[in-house]
Amino acid sequence: MGVTEWFGANAQWISPVTSIGTMMIWIFYAQLLYSSYARQTRARILINRAVGDEGVDSPCLVCNMSSESVYVYFVMVRVETTDGEFFVPATDCGHASAERDSVDLNTRTHQGPLASGSCMQLCSFSDMLERAGRLAGAPIKDGQLTEPEVELKAMEYHVICIYGSDKRPFGAIRRFEIEHDDSGRYSLVATTTDTQKRSALRYQKQISQWLQEHG
After folding, report:
1. How far out from the chain centre does Cα 126 lie?
2. Are strands 59-64 and 45-49 parallel, antiparallel or unpaired?
3. What pLDDT score does 95 carry?
4. Helix (H/G/I), strand (E/B), else coil: 60
5. Quick one: which of 48, 42, 58 has its CA closest to 175?
6. Residue 116: helix, strand or coil by DSSP?
7. How many CA within 13 A on the CB side of residue 176?
8. Strands, DSSP E only, in 43-185?
9. Fewer CB atoms inside 10 Å of the end CB: C or N, the chain?
10. Burial of 10 (C-beta count, 10 Å sphere; 0-12/13-18/19+)
11. pLDDT, tens digit (0-9, with 9 covering 90-100), for 46-84
């Protein structure tokens, strides 16, 4: 039996198999296109230290690695202590009211649009720790805890953003553990190698609560 005769005799099952194979190829390419589109439209924010060798005196950097701009709504820092945990707002830079009129808006607040590939510099980790320490009842001076009864354990940055035309905000989150040496000085160690993104319904409720309290 020749090839032509064989195809003619088996046409009843060759045609369906060919159709299924063609459909699987189209599904494969559609998946590749969707994955590429999803990567391009997914918000990606990185939180890191700007100058590693400066330790806790390094400023905290928020970098937008998304393909579009994001709007930074506000910044919160969760502080963990031996006496509990609480959130500290970190959106404003803390300029005195007398200086506000003479200081550029970009240096007064960490709120606003952040273009693709751009970075926003927050205050240094040490400044943030000192602010948090005062609120936690564990004051820090010259890199040392002045009240040993309450110890700082960790700090977690929450950068709340809106991406492109999305209506729901999301949080970019990174946690740093606080380590102390024998002299009482502290250092920060990141607990993850990357910044996490959080946008679940429960977290949306937390964002709404922060807006009511600090917005």
Report:
1. 20
2. antiparallel
3. 46
4. strand
5. 48
6. coil
7. 22
8. 45-49, 59-64, 70-81, 84-89, 112-114, 119-124, 140-141, 144-145, 152-163, 170-180
9. N
10. exposed
11. 998 876 566 677 888 899 998 888 999 889 988 887 777
Residue 6 structure tokens: 């064989």
113 has pLDDT over 70: yes
Burial of residue 212 (CB within 10 Å: 0-12, 13-18, 19+) is exposed
Task: Report pLDDT for 13.
Answer: 67
Q: Rounded to whole angstroms, how far apart are CA atoms 10 and 53?
A: 72
Distance CA 31, CA 83 (A): 50
Four-residue CA torsion sign, 76, 165, 62, 66:
positive
pLDDT in tens, 123-156: 888 888 777 767 666 666 665 666 667 777 888 9
For 130, the 3-state DSSP assignment is helix
pLDDT digit string (tens) for 149-194? 777 788 899 999 998 777 889 999 999 988 877 666 677 888 988 9
Do you know the residue count of the chain? 215
Give the separation between CA 89 and CA 49, rounded to whole angstroms: 19
* CA distance linking residue 156 with residue 190, whole number of Å: 9
Q: For residue 93, with 0-12 CB atoms within 10 Å meaning exposed, 13-18 middle and 19 or more buried, which class applies?
A: middle
Q: What is the pLDDT of residue 1?
A: 54
Q: 96: part of which helix (H) or strand (E)?
A: none
